[in-house]
């Protein structure tokens, strides 16, 4: 994502990330200072600092600030920065709980929170469950704090009225999207409908649409402007996830930082796999169904799956879908009444995000 | 707790519970109506309805409404009822996640959320983890909704300024209290300090002090009035938990609805056990340390522990502590400048809660 820093001012992603990170670290300091009787709190604030420092593209805060600049060229007030940071804190919650649910060992090249916490209790017979339970509490704290961020002295009743329903929808959609994902994982189907719904709620709305709308709404966007931003955000968010699914199977682990076996071992429900299943011959079906979702899947098995994804045309069809969704997003942008500097940046962002290799 | 309904109007606990429950069920209906594209949401709203219907004394909403009436005889506005319901929704979150952490099978005589959800997936090899993960999401939704409850059209900026820090403190204290509890469980110590801290954060502040202060603060209480209410709430909350600990070992399962072996099997860190360990002879120490926290503990083992708790005087000392804490709470009430009708009710409540058998 480093190419983003070449984008036009005032949308300087590096500067936006720094401002948001300062908000996050300052907030954690304040939480510690507000609870001098609870020295154990520093275990949690420390873990969150480590988690945030370890990585993350800050896409949601970036889009929140972009949403503001889509509507106005006034500099964003403190409440906008707090809302942007709130999204990143919520994301920390979501990832910490997701990692528990997926039983993941690493995140951003570091041990996941529950693994790191289990290690702290090595020697206790229940070290693993103490680690998992403490990580659940860590996620719970992060979620609570994501709302506490909105306790900004300069937030107006009108802004609150706009922010609350958006954040409520974002949370409900994301958590139900996560449920759809975990209920579908492991039982692949040729019907892409469920994969599309997971993409819509777990990624397109959560990662792109809601953050953009949050910033725009705080800037006083009209209903028409919000609709235009949704018209851009939803197809772009879909393209983003389709790219992610391809990277999960074909990516360079050196660049993505994740194995190309995990999604296949887990049996992740994707449009890519659904399309392959729909187009596969009986033999190809057998290959997919016997390999996909097998926790002991080897590199050889993965190569067999990749061969079927190519031979059925599912890989090429996914690339075409990304391209179509990208076009759809750009068309919506062209028709929208947004500030030109922001339109240019959103165009640039759409290109970067759909053609990325990491 | 049925005796509470004999208390003076306008503090009619039965009526308060009904109003709060109506708020909760109406809220869940609204969430479903707001997300017609997400039919899967009804799985979660349905589970929460079942969870709330299965039981619960609604102590926190009751104390929140009481806090209001401690300060004013005006009828509570909608925001007060929403704040009271918010506490119960937060409590649903806390119990659902606690039950996962404690690996509990039942709650209020029904299967816990993660067990009920695992049963829905019977036949899947990963039924248990799908059940646990879905229950985590259910808890996450309930926590988020507990804040959404405060999105009340009639809440003023001044009230928000009062409510946010209180709810932030309540959440941090409760979650860190839960951490103290899970980190200490299974390794009993003769030092009662850690048990007192768990009581303070996980019960006294969470169950009594913060709910009372929330209602009072919304009614516009002065700092002096809030301090007086804390002076009542903290010792009463401590006495409440000490009684709970005694009921966990000596209670009548017919009345309490829970086994008298669970706390002992789990190795729950209590003031009762810490005092016994501090006073025990070498032989008594051996009995306690070999039986306490043993997951296979039998009725005979439990009887041996009870004999040590009695012989060391720990049981009697705990009863004395309850009595002292009760007196301390009543003294604080006498010195406080609260509306008489409310003082009378709080006196009645303190008696009921410390002498309860269920």
Question: What's the end-to-end separation of chain A, in Å?
Answer: 8 Å
Order of helices and strands of chain A: HHHHEEHHHHHHHHHHHH
Reported CATH architecture of the largest domain in chain A: Orthogonal Bundle
Structural Rg of chain A: 21 Å
Write the CATH fold name of the largest domain in chain A. Farnesyl Diphosphate Synthase
Beta-strand percentage of chain A?
under 5%
User: If you average the pLDDT of chain A, what whole number results?
Assistant: 93
Overall morphology of chain A: globular
Structural class of chain A: mainly alpha
Query: Largest chain interface and its two residue counts?
Result: A-B, 48 and 48 residues
**Poorly predicted segments of chain A:** 1-8
CATH superfamily of the largest domain in chain A: Farnesyl Diphosphate Synthase
What's the total count of β strands of chain A?
A: 2
Strand order in space, largest sheet of chain A: 1-2
Annotation field: number of helices of chain A: 16
Largest sheet of chain A: 2 strands, antiparallel
Would you state the CATH class of the largest domain in chain A?
A: Mainly Alpha
> What does the oligomeric state look like here?
homodimer
Number of domains of chain A: 2
């Amino acid at each position: 994502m480093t190419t983003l820093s070449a984008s036009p001012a005032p949308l300087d992603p590096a500067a936006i990330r720094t401002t948001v990170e300062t908000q996050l670290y300052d907030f954690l300091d304040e939480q510690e200072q507000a609870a001098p009787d609870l020295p154990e709190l520093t275990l949690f604030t420390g873990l969150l600092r480590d988690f945030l420092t370890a990585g993350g593209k800050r896409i949601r805060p970036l889009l929140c600030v972009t949403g503001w600049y889509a509507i106005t060229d006034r500099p964003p007030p403190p409440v906008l920065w707090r809302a942007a940071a709130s999204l990143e804190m919520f994301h920390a919650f979501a990832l910490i709980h997701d990692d528990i649910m997926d039983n993941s060992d690493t995140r951003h090249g570091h041990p996941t929170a529950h693994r790191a916490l289990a290690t702290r209790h090595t020697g206790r017979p229940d070290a693993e469950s103490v680690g998992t339970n403490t990580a659940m509490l860590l996620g719970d704290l992060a979620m609570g704090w994501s709302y506490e961020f909105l306790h900004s002295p300069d937030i107006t009743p009108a802004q609150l009225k706009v922010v609350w329903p958006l954040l409520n929808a974002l949370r409900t959609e994301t958590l139900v999207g996560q449920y759809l994902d975990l209920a579908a994982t492991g039982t692949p189907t040729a019907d892409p409908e469920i994969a599309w719904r997971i993409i819509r709620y777990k990624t397109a709305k959560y990662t792109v649409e809601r953050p953009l709308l949050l910033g725009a709404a705080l800037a006083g966007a009209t209903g028409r402007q919000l609709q235009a931003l949704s018209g851009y955000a939803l197809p772009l968010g879909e393209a983003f996830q389709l790219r992610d699914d391809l990277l999960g199977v074909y990516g360079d682990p050196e660049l993505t930082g994740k194995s190309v076996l995990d999604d296949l071992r887990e049996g992740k429900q994707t449009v890519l796999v659904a399309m392959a299943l729909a187009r596969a011959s009986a033999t190809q079906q057998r290959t997919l169904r016997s390999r996909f979702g097998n926790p002991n899947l080897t590199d050889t098995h993965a190569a067999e799956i990749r061969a079927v994804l190519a031979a059925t045309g599912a890989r090429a069809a996914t690339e075409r879908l990304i391209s179509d969704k990208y076009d759809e997003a750009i068309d919506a942008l062209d028709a929208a009444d947004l500030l030109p500097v922001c339109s240019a940046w959103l165009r640039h962002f759409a290109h970067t995000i759909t053609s990325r290799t990491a």
